[in-house]
Design a protein that fits this description.
Order of helices and strands: EEEEEEEEEEEEEEEHEEEEEEEEEEE
Structural class: mainly beta
Helix content: under 10%
Strand content: over 45%
Number of helices: 1
Length: 492
C-alpha cells in the first residue's frame, strides 16, 4: 500500500553493578495514520562500594531496581504544517520494585518501594483555513499507586506498610494567533484536579488548580548590520488553587542577533517564580524514618540569566550565566534522623553553563560537550555563615562522541559529577564523593531495499561480558527497518 512505513528496533545494554537494559519498539504508518509501541526493561543491583563514617569500606545494600515500562501512541494527521486537523492519543505504564536503602548513616536494608503508574493523554489540534489561528486541546488522566514496605525482622517497633494513591485529571486549552508578522500571541487556560489518598489510614486530600496565561512573541527586523534581528517575548501567568494564595508570575525574554551573518546571538531572561508544595512534600506517610511536612510554605523568588550563542553550519557554542534568589526553597533533608522536607528561608543559586555541539568530517563524527558550575548556597544565617545546599554538585560535565559510517554507529559518553554534601551542616565525612560514568554502544541498522534482501547480523562486541546476538531477518516488502544495538556502561 502506498505510504506504508514499518519500523522495528531493539536495544540492549550491560553496565557495572549488575545493570541490564532491554528496549524495543515497533511503529507503523499508513498515509495520515500512525501507531507505535515501545517496551523497556531495566534491572540493576547497584551494589557499589563506599567508605562509611569510620573510613571502612562498605557495600551499598538494598539499592536494587527492576522496572518495566510500556508506551503506545496513535496519531492522525500528516507532518505538514498546513494540515488542519491532528489527533493524538498516548498511553504509558510504568511498574517498578526497588530498594529504599536509606542514608549512609542510617541505612534501611529491608525497606522496599513498589510503584504502578498509568498515564493517558488526548490531544486535538485544529487550524483555521488561513493558517493564522490554531487551537490545541489537551485532556489527561493519571493514576499512580505507591507502596512503601519496611519489615525489619529485629525492629518490630517500627514496621511500615504505607500505601497511597495519587490521581490527577486536567484540561488545557491553548490558542495561537498570528496577527502581524511581528506579533504572535499564545494564550490559554487550564484546570487540574489532584486527589491524594493514604490507603493505610483512609485519608484523602484534594487540590483544585487553575491557570491562565498570555505570551507575546514580538519579532523585529532592522536594515542594520549590527543588530539585524530582535525578538522580545513578554508573558504573564495567573496561578490559583484551593490551598494557597493566587499569584501572578511575569516573565520577559530577549534575543538579539548580532552581526551581518547572524552567527552571534545574545539572549536573556528575567522571571518571577512561585511553586507550591507537592502532595509528597505535605503528606508523605510518617514513620520512624521519613514523613511529610504539612506546615510547608510555597517557595518564590526571582531568577535571571544572560548568555551568548555562536552558531555556524557545523558548530554550535553557547555560554550562559544564571542566578536565582529564592525564599522558602523546599528541600528534603535529615532532621533528627527523619527524612523530611523543610523550607530554606533564603537561598541563592548561581552559576555558569557551557555547551558545545560540533558535526565534523562531513557529518561522520559528532561531538557534544557541556559543563555546568553551580554555586548553591543557604543564606539563612547571612553570607558570612553561608553553607552549600545539600545534594547539589558544584561541578557537572558531559562529553559525548558519535561516529557513524553507512549502517554502523558507535557512541561514547563520559559524565562527571562532583562532590555533594548530604546535610545542611556540610559534614565532610557524610558527603558523596565525585564520580565518573562511562557509556559505550555499537549499533547496526539494516534498511532492506528489495524483496530478495536477506541480512544476517551478529553482534559480539565486548568479549569480557560474553554477550552476543545472532539472527537472520528476511525482508518481505522492502519497506521495513530493523535496528540492533548492544551497549556497555562502566562506572568508577
Amino acid at each position: 500500500m502506498k505510504g506504508k512505513i514499518i519500523g522495528l528496533d531493539i536495544k540492549q545494554s550491560f553496565a557495572s553493578f549488575g545493570t541490564y537494559s532491554l528496549e524495543g519498539g515497533l511503529s507503523a504508518s499508513v498515509n495520515n495514520m500512525g501507531v507505535n509501541a515501545r517496551y523497556h526493561y531495566l534491572s540493576s543491583k547497584s551494589d557499589f562500594s563506599y567508605k562509611d563514617n569510620l573510613e571502612t569500606l562498605q557495600t551499598r545494600e538494598n539499592n536494587d531496581i527492576k522496572r518495566h515500562s510500556f508506551f503506545t501512541a496513535f496519531n492522525y494527521g500528516s507532518s505538514d504544517q498546513a494540515d488542519v486537523l491532528k489527533i493524538g492519543l498516548k498511553y504509558q505504564y510504568i511498574g517498578s520494585e526497588r530498594g529504599a536503602p536509606g542514608t549512609l548513616s542510617f541505612p534501611n536494608p529491608y525497606a522496599r518501594m513498589f510503584d504502578k503508574q498509568h498515564d493517558i493523554r488526548l490531544t486535538l489540534s485544529k487550524k483555521t483555513s488561513d493558517q493564522k489561528h490554531r487551537l490545541i486541546t489537551r485532556a489527561y488522566y493519571s493514576n499512580d499507586l505507591n507502596r512503601y514496605l519496611n519489615e525489619h525482622p529485629t525492629e518490630v517497633l517500627f514496621p511500615s506498610d504505607d500505601r497511597y494513591l495519587t490521581k490527577a485529571a486536567g484540561l488545557e486549552l491553548q490558542m495561537s494567533s498570528v496577527f502581524l508578522p511581528q506579533l504572535v500571541l499564545n494564550y490559554g487556560v487550564s484546570i487540574r484536579n489532584d486527589i491524594f489518598t493514604n490507603l493505610g489510614i483512609d485519608r484523602t486530600y484534594d487540590r483544585f488548580s487553575y491557570a491562565a496565561y498570555l505570551v507575546s512573541e514580538n519579532m523585529f527586523v532592522f536594515p542594520s548590520i549590527i543588530i539585524p534581528k530582535l525578538k522580545i517575548t513578554p508573558s504573564i501567568r495567573y496561578n490559583g488553587n484551593n490551598e494557597f494564595k493566587d499569584t501572578w508570575t511575569p516573565k520577559v525574554g530577549l534575543l538579539v542577533n548580532v552581526g551581518p551573518s547572524g552567527k552571534f546571538a545574545l539572549k536573556s531572561n528575567y522571571a518571577y517564580n512561585y511553586r507550591i508544595p507537592t502532595f509528597n512534600d505535605l503528606y508523605w506517610p510518617e514513620d520512624a524514618y521519613s514523613g511529610g511536612n504539612p506546615d510547608l510554605l510555597p517557595e518564590y523568588g526571582r531568577d535571571w540569566d544572560i548568555g551568548l550563542r555562536y552558531h555556524l553550519d557545523h558548530v554550535d557554542l553557547s555560554v550562559t550565566f544564571f542566578n536565582q534568589d529564592l525564599t522558602n526553597l523546599i528541600i528534603w533533608e535529615s532532621v533528627n534522623w527523619v527524612w523530611t522536607p523543610q523550607n530554606i528561608a533564603k537561598s541563592r543559586i548561581r552559576g555558569l553553563e557551557n555547551r558545545l555541539e560540533a558535526n565534523i568530517l562531513a557529518n561522520v563524527l559528532k561531538i557534544t560537550a557541556n559543563y555546568t558550575y553551580m554555586d548553591a548556597q543557604d543564606l539563612t544565617n547571612g553570607i558570612e555563615n553561608a553553607t552549600f545546599l545539600p545534594n547539589r554538585a558544584r561541578h557537572h560535565a558531559n562529553i559525548g562522541l558519535i561516529a557513524g559510517r553507512k549502517n554502523l554507529e558507535f557512541s561514547y559518553s563520559l559524565q562527571y559529577v562532583g562532590k555533594r554534601y548530604t546535610d545542611a551542616a556540610n559534614t565532610e565525612n557524610m558527603a558523596l564523593s565525585s564520580y565518573l560514568l562511562n557509556n559505550m554502544s555499537l549499533g547496526y541498522t539494516c534498511i532492506p531495499g528489495c524483496s530478495s534482501c536477506r541480512v544476517s547480523l551478529r553482534s559480539r562486541i565486548f568479549s569480557m561480558f560474553h554477550t552476543g546476538y545472532y539472527k537472520t531477518f528476511p525482508c518481505r516488502e522492502g519497506n521495513c527497518r530493523f535496528t540492533v544495538n548492544t551497549g556497555l556502561h562502566r562506572m568508577r
